[in-house]
Amino acid sequence: MTDTASTASAPTAPVEKVRGALLRYRVLAWITGVWLLLLVAELILAYGFDNKALDFVPIVHGWVYFVYLIMAIDLAIKVRWPAGKTIITAIAGTIPFLSFWFEHKRTQEVKAQFNL
Predict the structure, then answer these.
(1) 10 phi, psi to nearest 5 deg
(2) Which terminus of the chain has a lower count of CB atoms within 10 Å, N or C?
(3) What is the pTM assigned to this prediction?
(4) CB neighbours (10 Å) of residue 38?
(5) d(CA 90, CA 92)
(6) How far is it, in rounded angstroms, from Cα 116 to Cα 64?
(7) Distance of CA 77 to the CA centre of its chain
(8) Which candidate, 89, 102, 93, 87, places its Cα nearest to that of 39?
(9) Of the candidates 105, 103, 113, which has an alpha carbon nearest to the alpha carbon of residue 23?
(10) What is the pLDDT of residues 1-33, one digit of tens each?
(11) What is the rounded CA–CA span in Å between residue 116 and residue 63?
């Protein structure tokens, strides 16, 4: 006979692992947001003014976003976010300023959930 109360929610990672994953996510959310704003500036310069001064930004942002995805998924696994919440958080790194707002909201949620 199984206890339904114990199977209702999957266990989360230890608090120290959650704390580390949250810190990594927060750092990458900010770095991704800054590089995304630089990407917007690069696109304006390239297509609006035919200036290729920032042509390295798309490649760097792409790699930074990839690391952001890894950190967001790592945090999601540790705190047991549902798939929809994880996907929305991942997409936040593709829309200017949204990564900053999502970082703030997700940090509040995780801190409240784990008393950090």
Answers:
(1) -75, 145
(2) N
(3) 0.84
(4) 16
(5) 5
(6) 26
(7) 13
(8) 93
(9) 103
(10) 444 444 345 667 789 899 999 999 999 999 999
(11) 30
Amino acid at 40: V
Decide if 73 contacts 90 (C-beta within 8 A). Answer: yes
* Full DSSP string of 14-83: -HHHHHHHHHHHHHHHHHHHHHHHHHHHHHIIIIIH---TTTTHHHHHHHHHHHHHHHHHHHHHHHT--H
Nearest C-alpha neighbor of 110 from the set 67, 84, 70, 74:
74
Instruction: Supply 110's token pair.
Output: 């995780």
Query: First-to-last CA distance in the chain?
Result: 35
Q: Tokens 């991704």: give the residue.
A: 32
Number of H helices, E strands in the chain: 6, 0
